[in-house]
Amino acid sequence: MSRLRDWTELELGQQGRVLEVVRAPADVLSGPGAEVDPTAPDVVRLAADLVATMRVSPGCVGLAAPQVGVSAQVFCVDVSAHPKTREHHGTFVLCNAQVIESSRNEKAREGCMSVPDLTGDVKRASRILVRGRLPGSGDEVEVRAEAFEARALQHEIDHCAGLLFLDRVAGAHAVYARQTYL
Amino acid sequence: MTLAEWWRPSAPSGPHCDNAVVTEQLHAITVLGHDRPGIIAETTSRLAVLGLNLEDSTMTLLRGHFAMMLLGSGVASGAAIEDALAPLTSDGTLSVTVRAVTADDSRASGGTPWILSVHGGDRPGIVSSIVGEVARIDGNITDLTTRLSGELYVVIAEIVLPAGVDPATLDAAIQRVARELGVGASLRAAEADDL
Known about the structure:
The complex is a heterodimer.
Chain A: H1 2-5, H2 27-30, H3 41-56, E1 62-64, E2 74-77, E3 92-112, E4 115-133, E5 140-146, H4 147-160, E6 175-177
Antiparallel strand pairs in A: 1-2, 2-3, 3-4, 4-5, 4-6
Chain B: H1 3-7, E1 25-34, H2 39-49, E2 53-62, E3 65-74, H3 78-85, E4 94-101, E5 112-121, H4 126-136, E6 140-149, E7 152-161, H5 167-181, E8 183-189, E9 193-194
Antiparallel strand pairs in B: 1-3, 1-4, 2-3, 5-7, 5-8, 6-7
Helix pairs in contact in B: 4-5
């Protein structure tokens, strides 16, 4: 666990580029991402790009490779600044991540940068154990996440599997047009 | 695949003009009546033949009655749509209406979204009394469901409150009306978490 808490994007050894965020409908958002070699230079660069793009996107707490047009199982998360966050692990990037354990489903309304005009009610586990690999070193890590961080992780892992929150909404009347705040 | 994509036929066979300017028109279509399997399939296939592109739609059962509203855009006239859907009404169990509407996609309200829940013993006036308080402060109801289950009456409404309106003031007004009605009510923010 401390391996993850201590991780920062400085380990990637490069400044990422800010990439354009892909919006649905786009094929890359609807197909499963490929497993990656976390030590490969292009994966390390992708990790840096994801963090850089997340950093410049207001309110963004996570970003997955398909959202920047790359069909791969890589995502970044940082919920540390979100008001709903309790426990968190700061900024980290995971490759080939999977949910190993999950419990305590809770429903909440989600939005997504790739589906900017809609929101939806989605039930997700509020306690999860995720296993994945860190970009660069390739170290295998496990993350035990709760509440909002758990929701963010599942949302990003879904992206890597080609799933949007629209695939998980609680029912036919659980999708809403987002109000535009002026 | 979006509903609109699914809806769009690959080779529209609807009205066409070689020399005239073809203008797309938005039509609001309602189908109401006795429920049975296949109503949506029949309705949408008949509209597909006209090349109509299904935009927003909603369908539910109200006490077992089929109720569908949809917006379709295309070059077909209202009369052509009515003619195409006429067979749906032939046995007298379904009614269909078609009317032209103007496109109105103005979601830039500047308001904030809230969810109002009301539940309690059924009695006349629950909805009108509660939503009257919402209208009083120019709140806009964007989605509404009511259900009667035995004696229990449930109202769920999505509300957009105008900028500058204090939700606590509305909540106090709703609680006052709810006490008078003998029902419970809650107002909570519907802000979505961007992930």
